[in-house]
Design goal:
By secondary structure, this protein is an alpha/beta fold. It has six helices and twelve strands. The strands form three sheets. Strands 5-9-10-3-11 form a five-stranded parallel beta sheet, sandwiched between helices. It has a four-stranded antiparallel beta sheet with strand order 4-1-2-12, covered by helices on one side. The radius of gyration is 20 Å and the shape is globular.
């Protein structure tokens, strides 16, 4: 049976670049923000850790040479994780994408396409749990069934609130995510870059279904409105209190809602070797 870690306790990298800079970073259980000037190695640290994991999150047999992770519990050999980057590059293989959905034109669109599929699976899972609770019956069955849907409802409320200035609302009668705006129905690919980005982040958190896992975010704030930057961590933690966030950022706004103590400077966790 695969045993998954709840979170990463420490990241150690023997050499950040060729022959230079040993990294040792003790992590908080929930929020970890890596800050530093351009070129200092923030993204490199995240990339080395993510590349060291297998596609399914297995370690240490798949760890790159020189990358060491200490996790909790210590005997776990798998990590559930997601990675979100800011870069919304064009999709290179447009011919293949045309067979998937002709509206997909960027990497972020493609990410949202996969998240739509996960969202459908997530809804099936919570639907099955609701049916199971109702079939068992009992005086609290109705309340328990309603509680199972609360996280999905909260996600929808969050998005509606974030998009309120443009009048977009999630169509709650649809299985896939669609938006209504002044009588028109929109798909996620028709959103602005910032709207796509915040939707991708919060949808990624939602479909993990409250499981302990690690969310790597590489400068996720670049295309986000400053108010969204300030709320970003709070929204993620509210959707899944069991998440561990490992985030790189340039923006002071990301830490303005009380997360200053969660910031680590690259220079504080690196030594020359």
């Amino acid at each position: 049976m695969q045993k998954y870690a709840d979170y990463i306790e420490e990241i150690e990298i023997d050499s950040l670049w060729s022959g230079k800079r040993h990294v040792k970073w003790k992590l908080n259980r929930q929020v970890n923000i890596l800050s530093g000037i351009n070129g200092e190695g923030k993204s490199t640290i995240l990339n080395k850790v993510v590349k060291s994991l297998s596609g399914g999150g297995e370690f240490p047999s798949h760890l790159l040479k020189g990358v060491h992770l200490t996790v909790s519990p210590a005997d776990a050999r798998w990590i559930r994780y997601d990675l979100i980057r800011t870069l919304d590059s064009p999709v290179l293989d447009t011919e293949t994408m045309a067979h998937v959905d002709t509206r997909i034109s960027s990497a972020l669109d493609f990410q949202l396409y996969h998240l739509q599929r996960k969202y459908l699976d997530y809804q099936v899972n919570i639907g099955n749990r609701i049916i199971e609770v109702l079939q068992k019956g009992g005086p609290d069955a109705a309340r328990q069934a309603q509680d199972i849907s609360l996280r999905k409802t909260r996600f929808q409320d969050m998005i509606d609130d974030l998009f309120s200035t443009t009048g977009k609302k999630i169509v709650r009668t649809e299985n896939e995510i669609r938006f209504s705006q002044i009588g028109e129905t929109l798909v996620p690919y028709q959103l602005s870059s910032g709207e796509k980005q915040i939707l991708a982040i919060l949808l990624t958190v939602l479909v993990e279904d409250n499981q302990p896992y690690v969310l790597f975010l590489d400068e996720p704030e670049v295309s986000l409105h400053i108010d969204w930057q300030q709320r970003l961590i709070d929204l993620i933690v509210e959707l899944n209190p069991n998440v561990q966030i490992i985030l790189t950022t340039h923006s002071p706004a990301v830490i303005m809602n009380g997360w200053m103590d969660s910031v680590t400077e690259v220079s504080d966790i690196t030594d020359k070797v």
